[in-house]
Design goal:
- Helix content is 23%, strand content 36%.
- By secondary structure, the protein is of the alpha/beta class.
- A six-stranded mixed β-barrel has the order 1-3-2-4-6-5.
- A hairpin with a 2-residue loop joins strand 2 and strand 3.
- 14% of the residues are buried.
Length: 133
């Protein structure tokens, strides 16, 4: 009986391939969608504001005074999501959207920036830009 069980175990172990970690894929959810409402500031005006973040857009540095942060996909995320960025964020996205952002980068009208935030890379993948009226 033991011989039969040992033989059966040997046959199964030889014919069944080992389970590898590559056969299982972890499906990650997309990064949170955030909306940042803010106003671009000049260098002098930025010195008098506390809630600012530097944005790098197409190799240009812009200073944004952040008025509001919210996430439609994760209501628990708010201002705290920007605290981990250290005051600097790279903005990427389609050329049309980035050009729209740069063309609306005035110091008089607030903007709404919407995109997916990749916190570890400090990247906002911009999906929409609109003037706040």
């Amino acid at each position: 009986m033991r011989l039969l069980f040992g033989l059966l175990l040997l046959i199964v172990s030889v014919t069944v391939p080992p389970i590898s970690g590559q056969s299982f894929q972890i499906i990650e959810s997309p990064p949170p969608l955030i909306r940042v409402v803010g106003l671009f500031l000049s260098a002098d005006a930025a010195k008098h504001q506390a809630s600012i973040i530097e944005l790098r857009v197409n190799e240009q540095l812009l200073t944004l005074h952040v008025r509001e942060v919210r996430s439609p996909t994760d209501p628990a995320q708010d201002w705290s999501v920007l605290r981990n960025l250290g005051g600097f964020l790279i903005v990427k996205g389609p050329a049309e959207t980035l050009n729209l952002l740069l063309s609306k980068a005035t110091h008089s009208e607030p903007l709404v920036l919407e995109g997916r935030l990749y916190e570890g890379e400090r990247v906002l993948m911009l999906t929409a830009v609109e003037l706040l009226k």
